[in-house]
Amino acid sequence: MNPEILKLARVLDVDPARLDYLADVDQGEVRLLREQMTTTLFDANLVVLERMALASKLLPAAVTAKIAEKVFGPLLCARIAGLVDVSRGVDVAKRLSPKFLASVAAELDPRRATSIITRIPVTTVVAVAEELTRREDWITLGRFVGHLPDETVRRCIGLLDDAGLLRTAYVLDDRSRIDHVLALLGETRLPSLVRTAAADESLWEPALDVLAHLNETRRATVRPLLDELPEELRARAEAALA
Prior knowledge:
Blueprint: H1 3-12, H2 27-43, H3 46-55, H4 61-81, H5 86-93, H6 98-107, H7 114-117, H8 122-134, H9 138-144, H10 150-157, H11 162-170, H12 178-183, H13 189-198, H14 204-212, H15 216-222, H16 231-241
Helix pairs in contact: 1-2, 4-5, 4-6, 6-8, 8-10, 9-11, 11-13, 11-14, 14-16
């Protein structure tokens, strides 16, 4: 299914099948709709959220973290994250459990909290990535790739098996980063992805999308593998590489 439809369904909390009627709409237009919907949701009750963010400064960070997990919950924390002072947000985030942070990440618009995300300790980010991987939440993983330093990205996506990496790459917000992300993992990973996709038809679409976004150097490493692919996939892979 169109990756933008999958991400829009996540924002709206509906079954992606309900959005099948958008299949023929340009992906860029669906992405624009998703971003507009996200902005609308996050700006709802903005004045109240700003007051809550301001009030959180009056409490010790450890107390705020406890209230966040036990009272506010992931959705409200995600709404407030982009409104708090950066140093304060990082201090609180370091005190939250990886499981709770993973739930917050699933609700968060990373564009609004990049300054906090990039300052959270790498070990914490990796622990959150491990939890998201356990949940098979490829959409959330894909949304954060464009907001993290390369070394953090390398460690996080290095946790993924081939199937998980393909599904995460398929839903990256910034499609132009697919080639760069694969480059962080070394030369042997791409052939492994192709062979894994060849054995699982559910991975064909993500794999073809990855191939279409490779630079010419990496495309050259894939072409010798085409003869190993099933006939239908080989024809589509040749078209993607072309």
